[in-house]
Design a protein that fits this description.
The chain is α+β, with helices and mostly antiparallel strands. The protein has a domain of 68 residues: Winged helix-like DNA-binding domain superfamily/Winged helix DNA-binding domain (Arc Repressor Mutant, subunit A), CATH 1.10.10.10. It contains five helices and three strands. It has a three-stranded antiparallel sheet with strand order 1-3-2. It starts with a helix and ends with a helix.
C-alpha cells in the first residue's frame, strides 16, 4: 500500500495537484488554470489520485469539485516517521559536534 502511494506521488504533476488541493477544494478548470496544463492531463492525473484514495470529488452543478483525502498521506507520514527520527538523531549529533568544535576554537 505505501509503495503504491509513493508511486502515485512520484509523478510531479500529481504532486502539484495535491499542493493546489492543500489550500482549498478546486474544480478541474481551476486546476487547469493554476497548473497551466491541459484539461485531459489534469483529468488523467486526478483519476489516478482518486483511484489511489488521495482525492475525492463531489458534483456541484456541472462541475466536479476535488478535495484532498488525508488517509493515504497519513500512511506515508507514518511510514516515514522512523526515518525522520533517524535523521533527527544524526542532525542533533552533528549540531553537538559543531558546537563542540566552535567552543574549542573560541578557547584557543
Amino acid at each position: 500500500m505505501v509503495m503504491e502511494a509513493f508511486t502515485v506521488v512520484a509523478e510531479p504533476t500529481r504532486r502539484r495537484i495535491l499542493d493546489e488541493l492543500c489550500t482549498s477544494e478546486r474544480t478541474v478548470n481551476e486546476l487547469v488554470g493554476s497548473l497551466a496544463v491541459s484539461q485531459p492531463t489534469v483529468s488523467k492525473h486526478l483519476k489516478v489520485l482518486r483511484d489511489a484514495g488521495f482525492v475525492a470529488c463531489r458534483t456541484e452543478a456541472q462541475h466536479r469539485v476535488y478535495r484532498i483525502e488525508v488517509a493515504p498521506l497519513r500512511a506515508l507520514a507514518d511510514w516515514l516517521e522512523p526515518y525522520r527520527r533517524l535523521w533527527t538523531h544524526h542532525l542533533d549529533a552533528l549540531e553537538q559536534h559543531l558546537d563542540h568544535q566552535a567552543s574549542k576554537g573560541a578557547q584557543r
